[in-house]
Amino acid sequence: MNSTHTHTPSLFQAEDNQTFINRIRALTSDSMPLWGKMNVAQMLVHCQQPLKSALGELPTKRRLIGRLLGAFAKKRILGEGGFGKNLPTDPMFLISDKHSFEEEKYNLIMLLERFLQSGPGAITQEPHPFFGKLTSEEWDTLQSKHLDHHLRQFGV
Q: What pLDDT is attached to residue 29?
């Protein structure tokens, strides 16, 4: 297999989790997006939403589009490679209001640490709003890929 990216990071692995935290710490309030509409503080809030959803702390509802396309999209998203740029965002996860950069940076780091400490057993049994039923490993892969996508969006 000739793949440039053979290891999908896991937020359940301390080393991988710390790598994400270090990337978040590299962000500054002046970090500018390479694509998209969110500023850095909004991105930090946006990245907290799916983590809270995975931990069962943010109730979500399945949408019709997810019921129709979720299973097909799930295979593609969870496969090799990262997220493409400018993918549609669930309206529930759109962040357009003003937020404190330092506060949201801290909140996201704390959430990642809690995700690691809680482990796979803490992952919700509720279906993902778009992809439907996911295993804890699939939730983890989705979180890692989503976080990586947005950190790359801001150049870290």
A: 97
CA distance 62 to 120: 22
DSSP class per residue in the chain: ---S------TTSHHHHHHHHHHHHT--TT---SSSS--HHHHHHHHHHHHHHHTTSS-----HHHHHHHHHHHHHHHSSS-PPTT----GGG---S---HHHHHHHHHHHHHHHHHH-GGGS--SPBTTTBS--HHHHHHHHHHHHHHHHHHTT-
Residue count (the chain): 156
pTM for the model = 0.87
The first and second tokens of residue 108, run together, are 């996201």
Neighbours of 101 (CB within 10 A): 18
Task: Note the pLDDT tens digit of each residue in 20-70.
Answer: 999 999 999 999 999 988 999 999 999 999 999 999 998 888 878 788 888
- Which residues make beta-bridge pairs with 128? 132
**pLDDT at position 80, please?**
78
Quick one: DSSP state of residue 120? G
Tokens of 5: 């990216």
